[in-house]
């Protein structure tokens, strides 16, 4: 396994965070986000069961905000982010690490996928759920074959309930068609291409929790840590390996 060059990872991340400020990335992303209609979603937070995937630039924008928070808040969120990435396949108890006290701790910086949830038709939601189950089935088979881990059926088959369409001020439903959503995605990706290094563009989007851990350790180390954490949790319900990993690598916003 390639040894982690933590110093190089952190130096690159620090440079990228400076770029976020210098290039006014927050303002430029806000321009895209403001194209999503303002509507009342009801704020049930059921869609926050999972950690939404983020584009590279969105990850940096969120992290740029998080580093401004009080130290205790940063420590708490750092722990939740790592725990989520390592254990979200083990139980339905793990929701998005930014969901706290029935509110989003990064509300103003939340990614485009969060903002668009609820603007899908019921048919689209059904198709998306079907694709998600297929992906989870393949994931479960891979863990069973490669790691001899049986991921819980309740987690692998869990679907986020269909969210009744967002409503405008008149109470009418608001939907965003696929071409319009794709246009918004492309705007963010194009912006990422302009300012983010090529090695940050693949994959084009992933969980915030994964990208956060990749700022400290390699992909191989994450996979190994996740496998160990899942096996430990399934064996005796403990998370000591997660605590040791946090102590060893000092994952800290």
Describe the 3D structure.
This protein is mainly alpha-helical. The chain has one domain (about 5-250). It has helices at about 5-20, 25-35, 55-65, 70-85, 110-115, 120-145, 155, 180-195, 210-215, 220-235, 240-250, and strands at about 55, 100, 105, 165, 175, 205. It has a two-stranded antiparallel ribbon with strand order 1-6. It has a two-stranded antiparallel ribbon with strand order 2-3. A two-stranded antiparallel ribbon has the order 4-5. A hairpin with a 2-residue loop joins β2 and β3 (about 105). α1 packs across α3 (about 55-65), α4 (about 70-85) packs across α9 and α10 (about 220-235) packs antiparallel against α11. The radius of gyration is 19 Å and the shape is globular. The two termini are about 25 Å apart.
